[in-house]
């Protein structure tokens, strides 16, 4: 079955991205590359407080990283596997161009 610790780690990752709000934040961060709490709140329709709480959890588990720029903190993806997963579950809009598929 594989390494029990690795399976447990993957289960934790999947539980983090299984939440629609956290997944929306990860997708938004992915496409923005770097984004502030306020901009994430606007992009996802969440409150700044809800975004901050979710980001704390995502950061604690190593999925996102923060970089301070003056008074603004910008978040980016820190986990390459999550980056690839987002490509698999939500292809980049340009990848659908000319296929007749709707985004």
TrEMBL record:
It holds the Pfam family MarR_2. CDD domains: HTH_ARSR. SUPFAM superfamilies: Winged helix' DNA-binding domain (SSF46785). Keywords: DNA-binding, Transcription, Transcription regulation. GO terms for molecular function: DNA binding; DNA-binding transcription factor activity. PROSITE patterns: HTH_ARSR_2. PANTHER family: ARSENICAL RESISTANCE OPERON REPRESSOR ARSR-RELATED (PTHR43132), HTH-TYPE TRANSCRIPTIONAL REPRESSOR CZRA (PTHR43132:SF6). This is Transcriptional regulator.
